[in-house]
Design brief:
The chain is of the alpha/beta class and 305 residues long. Helices cover 42% and strands 13% of the residues. It folds into 2 domains: 94 residues, Rossmann fold, CATH 3.40.50; 158 residues, Aspartate/ornithine carbamoyltransferase (Rossmann fold). The strands form 2 sheets. Strands 7-6-5-8-9 form a 5-stranded parallel beta sheet. It binds phosphoric acid mono(formamide)ester and norvaline (NVA).
Length: 305
């Protein structure tokens, strides 16, 4: 049976651990033939720097081949229906990594594709980002379970995947969002079940200071995600008190890590210069997209031992 990766919750705690360990091995060792002869289609409805480049380079460095399909070329659901695109690509490639506006498009692609589909970001989740972030945290802190992540800002796709990733792996998750921009209720209830199995906590706040108090990791993301540009002014007002800066980080633990998936809006959700602060690990996060996705592709494309 093909194994799609649409949500962080598609993987068990053991599978997440295995992918992180494999990513650490692949970061140290060249494996130029691991995915020899394998092909990946990158089907994108939205722009990308990190996700596109890291998937393309991952396939190249493992001996496979990736082909990037821009929104203009494919016209998903405009030039051609989603099921037809899924059926055609299944005849050419071994895997599809898709970035879509609607998560429903991903579900439809996966439902009609004969080959595995990876979520390269949708309006609901960004699971490749969240798993890469776990790798970064594990490298920096030497453990996951028992640590506390405080997410400041929009209850968006990145927040949803982080809530699931932390609760599955035994990390505590705090989130501070303004009214009207809270985390998705279904993701929250799914996360609460994981948290109860892994003995971790999920706590919701409106005050960023309360959320970051004693946090090991402070994480933020843009206030206006791709596809929400018409709401940018309204969101700038709503999130005014949710900027992450030196003052806010001073409420967290002294050895706090600052994280952001990028792209960042300087002097909007973060203070200018924060990305280059000694607490910031954002460029390690960006690098780890490559290593984690190599392990993910190997897991999805190679037969299980
Ligand atoms: N973090 C991330 O997914 O970046 P891109 O949108 O540039 O791929
Ligand atoms: N929440 C952001 C993440 C970008 C990597 C967006 O969806 O635009």
């Amino acid at each position: 049976m093909k194994k799609d990766f649409l949500s962080v919750s598609d993987f068990s705690p053991q599978e997440i651990k295995q992918v992180i360990e494999q990513a650490m091995t692949l970061k140290e060792e060249d494996s130029p033939h691991l995915l020899s002869g394998k092909t990946l289609a990158l089907l994108f409805e939205k722009p990308s720097l990190r996700t596109r480049v890291s998937f393309e380079i991952a396939m190249h460095q493992l001996g496979g081949y990736a082909i990037y399909l821009s929104p203009q070329e494919v016209g998903l659901d405009k030039r051609e229906s989603v099921p037809d695109v899924a059926k055609v690509l299944s005849r050419y490639v071994d895997c599809i990594a898709a970035r879509t506006f609607s998560h429903k498009t991903l579900i439809s692609l996966a439902g009609h594709s004969q080959v595995p589909v990876i979520n390269a970001l949708s309006d609901l989740e960004h699971p490749c980002q969240a798993l890469s972030d776990l790798l970064t945290i594990y490298e920096k802190k030497g453990r996951l379970a028992g640590l506390t992540m405080a997410f400041i800002g929009d209850g968006n796709n990145v927040a949803n995947s982080l809530l699931l990733a932390t609760s599955i792996t035994g990390m505590n998750f705090h989130i501070a969002s303004p009214s009207g921009y809270e985390i998705n209720r279904e993701i929250l209830s799914q996360g609460r079940k994981f948290a109860s199995s892994s003995r971790s906590r999920i706590e919701l706040f409106t005050s960023p200071e309360e959320a970051v108090t004693s946090a090991d990791i402070v994480y933020t993301d843009v206030w206006t995600s791709m596809g929400q540009d018409a709401e940018a002014d309204k969101r700038r007002l709503a999130f005014h008190d949710y900027k992450v800066d030196e003052r806010l980080l001073s409420f967290a633990r002294q050895d706090v890590l600052f994280m952001h998936p990028l792209p960042a809006h300087h002097d909007e959700e973060i203070s200018p210069g924060l990305l280059d602060d000694p607490k910031s690990v954002v460029f390690d996060q960006a690098e780890n997209r490559l290593h984690l996705q190599k392990a993910l592709l190997a897991k999805i494309l190679l037969p299980t031992k």
